[in-house]
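Encode chain A's predicted structure.
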Amino acid sequence: MSDGSSAGGPTVRRMLVGAQLRRFRTDMGITREQAGEAIRASEWKIHRLENGQVGYKERDITDLLTLYGVIDPGEVASFVAMAREANTPSWWHGYTDVLPQWFRAYIDLESAAALIRTYEGQFVPGLLQTEQYTRAVMRGAHLDDSSEEMERRIALRLTRQRLLTRPDPPRFWAVVDEAALRRPVGNPEVMRAQLERLIDATKLPTVTLQVLPFVAGAHPAMVGAFSILRFSDQELPDVVYVEHLTSALYLNKLDDIDQYLHVMETISVRGAAPDKTVEIISGILKAGS
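Encoded structure for chain A:
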């Protein structure tokens, strides 16, 4: 099994394949309905193929490429190989028993992102949690889990964290509400170790950590946590991820993205400057000692 450090996964590969199929189709002036007829399918299936929401059949790919005028044998073979890779299970496949369907796409997107911006109001962001903090969080959230299920959930999260220290890490910019830093999770030793981990994280060259202090008052992110992911490949749009108790939203419409970017910029301005983060966390540590 991979260690989770490879950039991307089937979700991202499907998005790339779909984006290229869309470009081929629009360049030829072909409608989704016409493309669907060419592969004995509906316009809706073409929509889903172009948005990376389903796997690819080789026959569909070759038929569409022919329709779109892509006939160079080398180009066709390369594209078919990329589509085949998009059907390959990701590194997290072995954790599907403890991984909700709606969260799987996020792990692939997270692995491929060049920039991850996130806001957390209740917890320390998952990518920055210590093992014991994660265990305490999960004990509170998954009350019916067996000890084996709990350990597998923890292992999955710790594996995800490796992306911050891989050779080509994404930029990670987190704004964390002061409440998340003061909320007791686990015993005092667990919280102390977690706050110390955050101080260590600020030393990573690709990590920016800001604290949104209580004195900031009411702010537009109080409705809940969210993340914005940006990719180096221009074919991929930004994605906003908003998690709920039993589901999640993946938003990539420009209006939605702009609104969440505005909220993120607003709380970043209202938050303490990143160079004050260590001072703030150290003060919380001192107060708790």
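The chain is about 50% helix and 10% strand.
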